[in-house]
Fold this sequence. Notes:
Elements: E1 6-7, E2 11-12, H1 26-49, H2 56-67, H3 73-82, H4 87-100, H5 103-132, H6 154-173, H7 176-199, H8 205-224, H9 226-229, H10 231-237
Antiparallel strand pairs: 1-2
Helix pairs in contact: 1-8, 3-7, 4-5, 4-6, 5-6, 5-8, 6-7, 6-8, 7-8
Amino acid sequence: MTGPGRDAETGPERGTGPVPQPRPGTRPLLALAALCATLFTAVAVTVAVRHGAPLAPEQAVHRWALAHREEPLRSTAGALTATGTGPVPYLMAVLAGLLAGRGARGRLRAVACAVAVLAVGQAVRYGLMELLARPRPATADWAGRASGYAFPSGHATTSALAAGLLAWGIARYAGRGPARTWCAVLALWAVAVGLTRVYLGVHWPGDVLGGWLLAGTVLSLALLLERYALPDRYAADGLPESGGAGPA
């Protein structure tokens, strides 16, 4: 594939800036979005028909968390869960845009898009939370701060969105090796944040699962719209408008 900073025989020139990365095709993204949305719907319907009552496996996990809440795990979980909300996810979204964009204008647009994806995901999550109105576990079981209804988990949704956005930014900037490593690190962080919500007794496991599935749906749809939101990036990388990789 040829393009800016590339030679058909010698490959990419070194030191010319972000390394172009092939985009996933439209069909795999549509399939992933459909899968996440279908699974999320199944979890949400289960919550709705049971009027928020936890399933037996959820109760068992909750009891286990209460029985194993000891120091220093409790303090570590409290510190980790704090990174899944507030300014941290938005700073991650800003960094994602700065990495993904090209030039001052491109970076500004990429930052705006990344922050918008995070904000839209949170807005959808809040609307669903109010609609389903699932009660949280008993407040006597809480070992952390929480507000509002339980499903889907705000921390799980937000941290997964932020992790996905930053992984996208790194993938657009770095080579395959560093991108894979950082994607794995970010995925572990998002999973850990979600698990702390169950460990601290403020969410049922289904709330966290719902948050992850909702984030997966939003991120997949955002990637499908990337070529429209960031057309300059596609043109700079010499990639077709269909969203697939360019000609070999």
